[in-house]
Amino acid sequence: MDLLLAWPLPGARDLGAQLVASYTHPERGYHDSRHIAEVLERVHELSAHQERFDRMPVVLAAWFHDAVYDAQPDAEKRSAAWAAEALPGLVEPSVVDEVVRLVLVTEHHRPADDDANGCALSDADLAILAASAERYAEYVAAVRREWSHLGDAEFTAGRAAILRDLLAKPHLFQTRYAQEHWEAAARANVEAELEQLAALAR
Predict the structure, then answer these.
(1) What is the DSSP letter of 127?
(2) Which fold, 3-201?
(3) How far apart are CA 74 and CA 151, in angstroms?
(4) pLDDT tens digits, residue range 104-148?
């Protein structure tokens, strides 16, 4: 996917180019241009299968949700702040507010059941969990590169805590389509990774 061609605001191509540059920064691991392309593809997949949500704010939030990513605290808040600064004048104020809210939803991926926009974005962002074994392994390795400043023990403990928190949710995914098509594979991948982390921690 040519990311800039997927940018939804043709009158603001400079902003789109800035976002593309942020995702293609050489220090990115998993949260790179491939990630944003995959999230956008999953948003479109959900829409194509009759999941109802407001496309413009969800697509813009997909673009901004990891716009700032440096394996440091509050990256989502800083990404949301970029959206809040950059989007006024380009879209309606209500859309700006919704994009900012949605970016913050991706910090914990726990949207309310009746939050159609939040559920769509959260599911698209977590869809990597349901990837093929090969792609999932690439994802895990790329996440480890992003957190290379942590020692193995600290990373393993932190990663395991995140995965256990995900598995504690009633569903990894919120939308009907994602639950039907992604849930089983995602749980199998996450459980297998947890087993591998437990073996490393022994």
Answers:
(1) G
(2) Hypothetical protein af1432 (1.10.3210)
(3) 21
(4) 999 989 999 999 999 999 999 999 999 999 999 999 999 999 899
- Whether the Cβ atoms of residue 183 and residue 173 lie closer than 8 Å to each other: yes
Q: What is the dihedral of CA 120, 67, 14, 123, to 10 degrees?
A: -10
Please provide residue 170's backbone torsions phi and psi, each rounded to the nearest 5 degrees: -55, -35
Q: Assess contact for 147 and 200: CB atoms under 8 A.
A: no
* pTM, to two decimals: 0.94
How long is the chain? 202
| Main-chain dihedrals φ then ψ at residue 92, nearest 5 degrees | -60, 150
User: Are the C-beta atoms of residues 62 and 43 closer than 8 Å to each other?
Assistant: yes
Q: At residue 62, what is the residue type?
A: A
Reported for 72-79, long-range contacts at CB under 8 A and 24+ positions apart, including other chains, are 76/103, 76/104, 76/106, 76/107, 77/104, 77/107, 79/103
Q: What is the DSSP letter of 1?
A: -
Beta bridge mates, 91: 88
Say how many CA atoms lie within 13 Å of 96 toward its Cβ.
Answer: 13
Beta bridge partner(s), residue 47: none
Dihedral class, residue 92 (left if φ above 0, else alpha if ψ from -120 to 50, else beta): beta
Give me the residue spans of the domains in the chain: 3-201
